[in-house]
Amino acid sequence: MAAAAASCSTPIPNDAETLRRNRILSSKLYFDVPLTKVPMIYSSSYNIAFLGIEKLHPFDSAKWGHICQFLIKEGVLDKARLVEPLEASKDDLLVVHPESYLRSLKNSLTVSIIVEVPPVALIPNFLVQQKVLYPFRKQVGGSILAAKLAVERGWAINLGGGFHHCSAEKGGGFCAYADISLCIHFAFVRLNISRVMIIDLDAHQGNGHETDFANDGRVYILDMYNAGIYPFDYEAKRYIDQKIELVSGTVTKDYLGQLDKALEVAKTKFNPELVVYNAGTDILDGDPLGRLKVSPEGVAIRDEKVFQFARERNIPLLMLTSGGYMKSSARVIADSIINLSKRNLIDLNAPISKK
């Protein structure tokens, strides 16, 4: 059964499917990346800064830039080798989102509710588009391109993205666009892929992609999350193939033990051609929204386990950084990426170009 743009639990009409396919094929978001670049995607446009209003949400709205700075400062990444994505256009977004949803984002009140910053409602929408939604659209472009790079290089990391609370028709939880659903639909058409596994290890339930791929056998969802926090989406839970519900206060050892068991089960349940890894750092001890107690070292081990899971089975993997609501998140993500490099699970040196 094909995933529908508005309600993915019902078949999509053939003409709508054709329109979706044509939009994907005509998109400029897939482009050739030279071998002098590493499959790590980032733009300074990811960062959100607008009169200090961004500080009213616990999310570090410059997290993406901070990750990049740490990696460059540590000498493991050359800024010139990063890949700059394009902004997702309206036609790109229409691959999943109906026109009515995109139109709703032209209301600043709607956006303020999605990003959970009430004063945004008072800002003229053209500024909201420029200062809030444009950075999100750039990150969407990064997530979509990451799938292409992952298939070409074996792995890719978008230093942004992972807006897993946004479905086709509804945003929320700081997620305005469904980048996970979009990157998968692009992969179906442009990469000739028909089996995708989502491993969602953000502290929150990934109700957006779960809603979008309800009853779609092409997508297998493993979601491990704290059941005692937002979003409490009981409808979306029905569409999780492998659900691991944690309790608040889960510590590192127990968390990693649950993950080991989950990955062992996943190996026997589904044979994906692509893994989309939503690697939220809101599992960290002290995160005000995640309410779990995983150490920074635990996050690095978690990421290592997921990359190893894909490496052992020779499955391309793309990683999205998703949620994380402490200033320390950027440092933890950077340290985890450095660890992945040390373990030879990723290579931050651009390959020598073949002439």
Automatic annotation (TrEMBL):
- The answer to whether keyword Nucleus applies is yes
Gene3D superfamilies noted in UniProt: Histone deacetylase domain (3.40.800.20)
**Catalytic activity line of the entry:** N(6)-acetyl-L-lysyl-[histone] + H2O = L-lysyl-[histone] + acetate
Instruction: Enumerate the spans annotated as Histone deacetylase domain.
Output: 57-338
What EC number(s) would the UniProt record show?
3.5.1.98
Keyword Transcription regulation found: yes
Please give the SUPFAM superfamilies that the UniProt record associates with this protein.
Arginase/deacetylase
Recorded protein name is histone deacetylase
List the source organism. Ananas comosus
- What lineage is on file? Eukaryota, Viridiplantae, Streptophyta, Embryophyta, Tracheophyta
